[in-house]
Amino acid sequence: xxxxxxxxxPPAVVEIGDKRxxxxxxxxxxxxxxxxxxxxxxxxxxxxxxxxxxxxxxIEGANGSGKSTLLALVGTLIRPTSGAIAWGELGASLSDVRxxxxxxxxxxxxxxxxxGRENVELxxxxxxxxxxxxxxxxxxxxxxxxxxxxxxxxxxxxxxxRVALARALVHEPKLLLLDEPSTGLDRASVARVERVIxxxxxxxxxxxxxxxxxxxxxxxxxxxxxxxxxxxxA
Length: 234
Description:
By secondary structure, this protein is α/β, with parallel strands linked by helices. It has a domain at 111-171. It is built from six helices and eleven strands. It has a six-stranded mixed β-sheet, sandwiched between helices. It is globular. The chain starts with 12 loop residues before the first strand and ends with a strand. Mean pLDDT is 88; it is low at 1-16 and 18-24.
């Protein structure tokens, strides 16, 4: 099956052969028959999914099931082998989409020799938002003040997670992607992440969480199961 260009403005419907694919509503991110292969390995197979604003979309599955690959496709890090991805009102180009994107990876990727405050302020500067206001809001929301002046290499996993979340949210992204956000956290830290997810969804963001923890982020969510590259309703 031929692939559809991933970074051009898509029409409402694409016709390929005998198939008609609806690509996107105005405010949704839509994947239509998306597949991704790495050589002979089929990591994502024929996924069709609409990600709606104001919703939390939880994708569960074992390690190696294709969850992180799917997240990378939605987050513009990799191209699909076939199928179409449309980001709707987020924009038609990669730079447009990425301006609205917040990402928390499995590894927090905090700069180890920068302090917690410096990590947040750098993210705010890169996002083009008011640095002072971003730091004040982040410090209050994530209780970063207690370790704000310490290099991140001295911080615990939970403390690094707080800083990473603050960085991801400094610009109030419309699309928030979270990769295994509960891994290695204590109960209080997991509760904080779940609260932030609920707050961002209530704000109107599209929130996508991939996890192998079936108990994580229950509530008003759309839940899916990933198994050997295929996605189904949980």
